[in-house]
């Protein structure tokens, strides 16, 4: 088997194992203790912020605040907060970045 | 399966496809451009089905790296799936094993986040059949819509052999989608703390050269910080889900 397919199968099996991990054991969770619930409640904001923030403040792999992606991201965050409208947020965020780059801000 | 809830899940994820399609095109183009072939593109998208990790593995392979190194690069990026699995499991604990494995295969940032947002405020102890049916249908509606789009855009990218034009920064749509998912989760002080600490620690870890492991480190520290605040937040205590 080629290295490519070995990698695909290994990565696929491992990724599925991680996706399935707690779901596979879920039937044993008769009741989730409050302290565990307290931890689980933090997962959506913590995990999503860990994906978002680096993309906004180090888009090229270097920490930088004076660049259009952070500005466009902040604008998009305001739109998302005020409207909760996914499509509008994406359009405003992307348009802001296109305009900023067209104006020579990089 | 409830058709109404399938559709509700699909509708919730629909606008996010603006960020998924260009990403899927890249996932299709990249393996072909690096000589791994269109079969590998489809293999990665169906078997691994996790965009950023696919590109990381392809990068290792096209630089002559070993299969195990490529797989480890992918798995490091996908560690956050452990968190999603733990977070979603209590809501589906009375589902059949088969259905839970369907949920596992379809798990993505987007399907997870729209579902957990939809179920927020519900008790995990609510295990009435109608509730379970609604949760599963909503998740599958979201997950399957994203899956189908991902496969179609991978194939399109592999066949067309070229990416979307560089003049439109569509790669930025991916973090914007995560941003849209993040905002509604920030409804309590503990969530804001979890997000702020998670984001800052991830950036610090990246600056220290930790690499893709930084996301998992940041997320775990953010979870811990949020939980600490949560115990001392009486408002949140009063409204325990």
Estimate what percentage of residues of chain A fall within beta strands. Answer: under 5%
Mean of all residue-level pLDDT scores of chain B: 91
Q: What is the succession of H and E elements of chain B?
A: HHHHHHHHHHHHH
Estimate percent helicity of chain A: over 70%
Enumerate the spans of chain A where pLDDT stays under 50 for 5 or more consecutive residues.
none
- Radius of gyration over C-alpha positions of chain B, nearest whole angstrom: 19 Å
Q: How many E-type strands of chain B?
A: 0
Structural class per helix/strand content of chain B? mainly alpha
Order of helices and strands of chain A: HHHHH
Q: Averaging pLDDT over every residue of chain A, what do you get?
A: 93
Overall form of chain A:
extended
| Unreliable segments of 5+ consecutive residues of chain B | none
- The tally of helices of chain A reads 5
β-sheet strand percentage of chain B = under 5%
Of all protein chain pairs, which has the greatest interface, and how many residues does each chain bring to it?
A-B, 70 and 106 residues
Rounded to the nearest angstrom, the radius of gyration of chain A is 20 Å
Q: What is the strand tally of chain A? A: 0
Query: Helical proportion of chain B?
Result: over 70%
Number of spatially distinct domains of chain B: 2
Number of helices of chain B: 13
């Amino acid at each position: 088997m080629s290295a490519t397919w070995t990698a695909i199968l290994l990565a696929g099996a491992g990724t599925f194992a991680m996706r399935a991990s707690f779901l596979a054991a879920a039937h044993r969770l008769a009741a989730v203790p409050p302290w565990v619930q307290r931890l689980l409640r933090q997962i959506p904001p913590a995990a999503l912020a860990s994906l978002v923030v680096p993309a906004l403040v180090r888009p090229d792999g270097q920490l930088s605040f004076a660049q259009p992606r952070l500005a466009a991201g902040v604008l998009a965050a305001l739109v998302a907060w005020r409207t909760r409208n996914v499509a509008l947020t994406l359009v405003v965020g992307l348009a802001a970045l296109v305009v900023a780059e067209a104006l020579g801000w990089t | 399966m409830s058709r109404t809830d399938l559709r509700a899940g699909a509708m919730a994820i629909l606008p996010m496809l603006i960020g998924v399609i260009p990403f899927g095109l890249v996932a299709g183009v990249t393996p072909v451009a690096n000589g791994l072939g269109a079969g590998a593109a489809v293999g990665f998208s169906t078997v691994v089905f996790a965009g950023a990790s696919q590109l990381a593995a392809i990068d290792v392979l096209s630089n002559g790296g070993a299969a195990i190194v490529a797989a480890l690069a992918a798995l490091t990026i996908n560690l956050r799936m452990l968190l999603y699995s733990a977070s979603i499991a209590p809501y589906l604990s009375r589902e059949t094993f088969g259905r839970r494995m369907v949920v596992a295969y379809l798990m993505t940032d987007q399907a997870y986040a729209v579902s957990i947002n939809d179920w927020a405020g519900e008790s995990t102890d609510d295990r009435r059949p109608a509730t379970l049916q609604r949760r599963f249908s909503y998740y599958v509606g979201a997950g399957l819509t994203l899956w189908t789009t991902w496969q179609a855009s991978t194939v399109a990218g592999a066949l067309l052999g070229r990416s979307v034009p560089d003049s439109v920064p569509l790669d930025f749509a991916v973090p914007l989608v995560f941003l849209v998912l993040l905002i509604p989760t920030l409804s309590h002080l503990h969530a804001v703390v979890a997000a702020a600490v998670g984001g800052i620690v991830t950036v610090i870890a990246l600056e220290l050269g930790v690499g893709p492991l930084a996301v998992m480190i940041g997320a775990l520290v953010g979870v811990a910080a949020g939980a600490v605040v949560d115990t001392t937040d009486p408002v949140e205590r009063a409204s325990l889900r």
